[in-house]
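Lab manual, section 2.4: Encoding a predicted structure.

Procedure: take the sequence of the chain (242 residues), apply the prediction step described in section 2.3, and record the output as structure tokens. A sample record is shown.
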Amino acid sequence: MKITFLGTSHAIPQADRYCTCAMIEAGGVIYFIDAGAPLMEEIVKLGKDIHDVRAVFATHCHLDHINGIPSLAGPLNWFFKDASVSFYLPEQRVIDAYKTLLSYTVGRLDEERVRFYLTDKDFVYEDENIRLSLIPTAHMNPSYAILVECEGKRVLFSGDLSGGLKKGDVPHVLFEKAIDLFVCELAHLGMDDIKPYLERSLARSVCFNHVSPIEKLDEIKTAADSYPFPIRAVNDRDEIVL
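Recorded output:
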């Protein structure tokens, strides 16, 4: 499994950082966790084949996590007519809005190929490569962390969490069984907030994205020697192979 971070900024993109987006490649198939980056443009720039893209999963429906969806769904609908992608979002009103937008801008929406599905706390996705489940968080209602299990590895994407973790919504799976990689946001919390959770976690490595303000990057470097596992901040186009 290879994870490529296509967006590592917080709500506002920076000159060298799109908003939150991660691409997972496994078994020759591409999956996206959040879509804060322009998906179609990134697929082209990376030389990927749109026919290999299978699904996009959103942790929640704030625009910095989903605003790249139309850039993929639009061309998929009217140009790449032999490709299909499923989009999984946790709010029906957002799904309806995207369907309306696409039908207005690119004509009739081909829902047999451009498929939108509603997710909830009981949602589980599984195919021959990957298993993905949702864990509710308190960032908004609804919002989720995403646990990805693939090729014998477990990766936890925190999604966005509550401010200062005052609602204690760090996903419980972090303390129950080994997590090979914990991808944690650092916009709504600080290193001091996450420290007690990391100290009792079963993570084997941690990387921070969705970092704001940018000065927190120095905090991450300073804290790196405090843990028995590697921690780091990730930048756009960073790759991790598990």
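Check your result against the sample. The chain has one domain: 2-241.
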